[in-house]
Amino acid sequence: MTDHEDAELFARLRTLWRDVDPVPAGLIDRMVAAVAADGLNREYALLTLVEEELGAVRGETDALTLQFSDGTTSILLHVTTTASGRRRVDGWVDTGAAEIVLTQGEHSRTTTPAETGRFAFDEVPPGLTRVRLTTGEGDEMRALSTPQFEL
Fold it and tell me: Strand ranges (DSSP E) for the chain?
């Protein structure tokens, strides 16, 4: 068969299937939406807003507490605004962590939590932020990366 004959045969097959078993109305739009939202369900389940507090009536500070979990490991972050307008991020993890990385765009900071799971980042500029936690050793290394959140 020539390329032209192949194209003609495929066109007839498409017409046949379109008549015999048409695509349900809205299927293409639903599939595009499902694929686009696939990662959102996971991120929504991972991000749990625990508490948002505003400072005292006469205070100018505000605080935000966020908890992230993948079902095995949890990270609790408490964010406060410093006098300079930057943020202080105090955090706790419930597992032995090898390294914690706070990333904002191209910039990142790394720390190792104490035995109690506590860690902190000082003078963090406001903006979109992500925290990545690495646990385990050798072949057992695992990573938990939070969705981006606004500081």
Answer: 47-54, 62-69, 74-81, 87-93, 97-104, 107-111, 118-124, 128-135, 142-145, 149-150
